[in-house]
Every structure is written in structure tokens, then in C-alpha cells.
Specification:
- The protein is mostly beta strands.
- It folds into 2 domains: about 15-55, no CATH class; about 75-200.
- It contains no helices and 16 strands.
- The protein has strands spanning about 15-20, 25-30, 40, 45, 50-55, 75-85, 95-100, 105, 120, 130-140, 155, 165, 175, 180, 185-190, 195-200.
- The chain is elongated.
- Bound molecules: zinc ion.
- Zinc ion binds near residues 34, 35 and 37.
- Zinc ion binds next to loops.
């Protein structure tokens, strides 16, 4: 993933000093002599040049979380991303995924309700433990979406396995599930509808 940079593998932590009664004393704030990362205590919040690592601790009382309306790097996302078990992935990054009975996320197809609804988009190629987007903005320069009102800007699961489309599926038993809308030719706002129609 391009937005994640390589971590320093050999942190050498030293405590920052504070002044107490005119004496220098070590504080609970540490910095790495090699990379400059900061951390509070031993297993808690880490701050690097590239990210804030909360170590599964909560962030409380946040006024807003701002997403990028167009990620600056191709094939990256801004939003809610988790690591999940991906069973099949026919089309790589941006492929719609549905949850199979065994809990794997597999490549979705609008051919029938057996391979929908789409609940996530692949953020990595291949299968296994992979990052997937649950909600947010994804940029893929290979896309060429049309923006606009009505059904123009909406994006659906395609009947071609692993693809998205702006042409509403129209065959018998095919699934019509809006999964988001086009922010630009290369970007979608992925907000999958959990309500879908099966074509008669
Ligand atoms: Zn380091």
C-alpha cells in the first residue's frame, strides 16, 4: 500500500527529558534516535512522520475526520479499511467482494444473489489476509466513470465477476445493487447499499 511507508525496523528509544526542581528527569515520551518516531509510554500511542498508531486504543471526542476527496496516489483509498480473509479476487484492487458462507470475502458478481451483496472493495491483489475498503473514497486511474445526477453517477456491481459498472444489470435474476457514486472519472465514493433488487 503506497500510503504506508516502511517502518523503522531497529528503533532505539530514548526518553525525552523534562525539568523538575531544576533537575533533568526522563519523561514518559520517547523518541527513536534512528527514525525520529515518538511514542508515549511503552505500548501505547506512536507517532511517525507517516501515521498516528493508536495501538487499538480509542480516539475520543473527535470533532471531525476529514477524508481526501481524491487520494493523491493511484489505487489507494481514504476511508474505513480493515484486514480480512479474501478467498477469491478475480480483478485485483477495486474488485467488489461479497461475504461467503465460510466468512471469506470472495469476488462479487451481479449474475445472482448467490454472489452479492457487495460489502467491501479489494485494496490489494491476491487472496489471504488482505486489506479491504468498507466505506470511503477509492481512486483507480484505470476507471473512467461518468458523474452526474439521477442514475448517471451511480455505480453498480457488474455481471462480469470482479468488476463495477454504471450500466444497471437488466437480465433475469441479476442483482441491482448501488455500491456508490462517481466523484470523478477516477474516484468513487464507496457506500454500498445493503438493499438490493433482483431483476425479474
Ligand atoms: Zn526508529
Amino acid at each position: 500500500m503506497a500510503e504506508e511507508r516502511a517502518d523503522c525496523k531497529r528503533h532505539k528509544w530514548i526518553p525525552l527529558l523534562g525539568i523538575d526542581k531544576e533537575r533533568s528527569v526522563p519523561t514518559a515520551l520517547f523518541t527513536c534516535l534512528r527514525c525520529g518516531d515518538l511514542k508515549v509510554g511503552t505500548h501505547t500511542i506512536k507517532i511517525s512522520r507517516y501515521r498516528l498508531d493508536m495501538g487499538e486504543l480509542p480516539m475520543n471526542s473527535i470533532a471531525s475526520i476529514n477524508l481526501m476527496n481524491e487520494p493523491s496516489v493511484n489505487a489507494t483509498a481514504s476511508g474505513l479499511v480493515i484486514t480480512a480473509a479474501v478467498g477469491t479476487n478475480a480483478e485485483g484492487i477495486g474488485a467488489p467482494l461479497f461475504m461467503a458462507a465460510n466468512g471469506n470475502l470472495n469476488t462479487a458478481s451481479a449474475v445472482s444473489s448467490a454472489t452479492t451483496p457487495c460489502v467491501a472493495l479489494a485494496m490489494e491483489t491476491g487472496t489471504g489476509s488482505k486489506k479491504v475498503l468498507l466505506h470511503g473514497v477509492l481512486r483507480l486511474d484505470a476507471w473512467n466513470w461518468t458523474t452526474g445526477p439521477g442514475t448517471n453517477g451511480l455505480i453498480y456491481v457488474s455481471t462480469t465477476t470482479g468488476l463495477l459498472t454504471q450500466a444497471q444489470p437488466s437480465g433475469t435474476d441479476e442483482v441491482i445493487q448501488p455500491i456508490g457514486w462517481a466523484l470523478s472519472d477516477d474516484c468513487i465514493y464507496f457506500t454500498p447499499s445493503m438493499m438490493y433488487l433482483t431483476h425479474v
